[in-house]
Design a protein that fits this description.
The protein has five helices and four strands. The protein folds into two domains: 1-96, Double Stranded RNA Binding Domain, CATH 3.30.160.250; 98-140. β2 and β3 (30-33) form a beta hairpin. The mean pLDDT is 89. α4 (107-119) crosses α5. It starts with 6 loop residues before the first strand and ends with a helix. 44% of the residues lie in helices and 17% in strands. The protein has helices at residues 36-56, 67-70, 74-81, 107-119, 124-139, and strands at 7-15, 18-22, 30-33, 85-90.
Length: 140
């Protein structure tokens, strides 16, 4: 299985109503959105689809580079000069293969998690997976 590469730098440009982004470490991976928030949400899907296609073709995912290295690329440097911005987008891929994890949580927190999961008709695992995925998607 491929090692998880969790965060990729993206270049964002455009204007309200027409923002776009591209991923220097994933050639051809792009996305568009009317707002930056929408664009970043769509970017997560674009990264996931690009990565899933690459993995399905037997390719190894490129290692994500930091801002310091990416800004040295002439195309990125020129985009930044023209007003583009850099952001980090998390890559979340569902493998469909659950694994067990031994976690230590405060007893009160675990009870609250179980209550919240039950209220939503979820198992503890499904609730924690959903909460983690949401937190990573929002904050990288």
């Amino acid at each position: 299985m491929a090692k998880a590469k969790t965060r990729y730098a993206v270049v964002i440009d455009g204007e309200p109503g027409a923002f776009g982004l591209w991923v220097p470490d994933m050639p051809g991976c792009t996305s568009m959105g009317a707002t930056v928030d929408e664009l970043l949400q769509k970017a997560q899907e674009a990264l996931r689809l690009w990565a899933e296609d690459a993995l399905a073709d037997g390719e190894v995912l490129p290692a994500p580079r930091g801002f310091e290295e990416i800004v040295k690329e002439p195309e990125v440097a020129e985009a930044l000069k023209q007003g583009a911005a850099l952001a980090i987008v998390p890559l979340l891929i569902e493998t469909g293969r659950p694994v067990k994890a031994n976690l230590s949580l405060d007893a009160w927190l675990l009870a609250a998690i179980d209550d919240a999961a039950a209220a939503r008709g979820l198992t503890r695992s499904a609730f924690l997976s959903s909460a983690a995925r949401e937190k990573i998607a929002q904050e990288g």
